[in-house]
Amino acid sequence: MKTESAKSVMQAYQLRVKRLLPGGVHYNFHLPWEETPIHFVKTKDSRVWDMDGKEYLDLYARFGALIVGHGNREYNECLKETIDRTLSVSHCDMDAEALELIAKFVPSAEMIRFGLSGTEIVQNALRLARAWTGKNRFVRFEGHYHGNADNIMGGRRAKTGEPVPKDFPGDLKGTLGRARDCMESQSYLLPWNDADALEDLLIRHGDDIAAVITEPVCVNGGSVMPAPGYLQRVRELCDRYHVVLIFDEIITGFRLGLGGAQAAFGVTPDLTTLGKALGGGGVPVSALVGKKEIMQLLTEKKVIHAGTFNGYPLGLAAVKATLEILSRNNGAAIDRMNSIMQQMHAILKEEADAVGLPLVIQGPPSCASFHLCSEPLANPADYTFDLLALDIILNNNLARHGILVSTVSRLYPNISLNEEDVEWFREHAGRAIADTKEIYD
Ligand code: PMP
């Protein structure tokens, strides 16, 4: 539909969408298409094309879910075959393969249940932890994200061990969990990478704490790595105070290698939440995996876990195909993906250095972030709103010049990346850096 103000096919289309879709977007995040709407019509490997025919390198990768690349033939064939054969049944003949592949690679996966989103599976993990320990509250950390549920969002710079303050930056209306009484009854918010703060809290309140939930690498807080020995100490403290340790590996799972962060750091949590790359990027699927003795509560029906589409065949087909593709040749595809991504990191840094723009890239190559500052963030709480605003400028400039990145400033590679993509990155990132430098000055 053409309107007077639309300058292109896509702009006209966006106006049509916007009439019915709040903000014209499917979620409220800082993504380039909030500023300049983008609707995609075609994809191949690492590239996507919008309605006006513009080509992009896709390092947004559907918030990190896309790991097999767009149009991966083996993956798509597996999904198509499933659509034709068993699309709408519960329990199909791919259950065993999908379960066994996860159990083979993820150290904590003694038993597994499937869901659709990360948000819901995190809630199931918390519920199991409460049931297992007979305790109520949980500990979470500043700058971490565990889904779009009221009891687990928000909160920055709270005093150690204190409940979340009532008015804090980023407060969102209508979110129950942000009300003080609800927070107080459910969670403690702590600074991350500070095992002493956790120990101090557990000494005082350990008898009411069921779980500690953490991203093992805090990707959502700017791709901050755990301090050496930190995760090990968290593990010891959880054991000492009979607290369930939950690793939220919804981003790191199958990105930091097939065993995720728990294999990479040699720390096995009691429960793990998986999502995003677990399903390759094409369909939603998540999983709660963990120790048999805890997961057994589901076998015994002592804890409810429900969901109309849990274990749906298309999701299991996606898990099976993804893990078969990623695990071939000892995970060579992930290694190659990481080394190509590191070349892009080096280019971005060189381009920034060349024009005198301060820039750091931090985190594992498969889920790193860049920031317009001169020192890496040591803690997610250091990711200030001012820095975030600067990063968003570069995010938007990259998108204008044909490189899509994820919220916020994250670069998510997929296994189809190749040398041509590196060259594309060099050319287009350079222009985005130059434009950003102009604004920065
Ligand atoms: N945990 C983490 C670490 C995440 O990054 C996300 C999504 N960004 C979630 C949980 C929630 O997953 P979903 O969006 O599938 O509900």
Compact summary:
Keywords: Isomerase, Pyridoxal phosphate. By secondary structure, the chain is α/β, with parallel strands linked by helices.
Characterise this structure.
Keywords: Isomerase, Pyridoxal phosphate. This is Glutamate-1-semialdehyde 2,1-aminomutase. The chain has 441 residues and is an alpha/beta fold. It has 14 helices and 14 strands. The chain has helices at 9-18, 32-35, 61-64, 73-86, 95-105, 118-133, 180-186, 195-205, 230-240, 260-265, 292-299, 313-355, 385-400, 419-440, and strands spanning 40-44, 47-50, 55-59, 111-115, 137-141, 187-190, 209-214, 244-248, 271-274, 286-290, 360-362, 368-371, 403-405, 410-411. It has a seven-stranded mixed β-sheet, sandwiched between helices. The protein is globular and about 60 Å long.
The main β sheet shows up as:
7 strands, mixed
The outline comes out as globular
β-strand percent reads 5-15%
| Highest-level CATH class of the largest domain | Alpha Beta
Oligomeric description of these chains:
single chain
CATH topology of the largest domain, which one?
Answer: Aspartate Aminotransferase, domain 2
How far apart the termini lie comes to: 40 Å
Number of E strands: 14
CATH architect. name of the largest domain: 3-Layer(aba) Sandwich
What small-molecule ligands were found? 4'-deoxy-4'-aminopyridoxal-5'-phosphate
Q: Fraction of residues in helices?
A: 40-55%
Radius of gyration: 22 Å
State the domain count. Answer: 2
If you average the pLDDT, what whole number results? Answer: 91
- The count of helical stretches stands at 14
Q: Which segments are poorly predicted (pLDDT under 50) over 5 or more consecutive residues?
A: 157-170
Order of helices and strands: HHEEEHHHEHEHEHEHEHEEHHEEHEEH
User: What is the fourth-level CATH superfamily of the largest domain?
Assistant: Type I PLP-dependent aspartate aminotransferase-like (Major domain)
Family: Belongs to the class-III pyridoxal-phosphate-dependent aminotransferase family.
Organism: Thermobacillus xylanilyticus
Keywords: Isomerase, Pyridoxal phosphate
GO molecular function: glutamate-1-semialdehyde 2,1-aminomutase activity
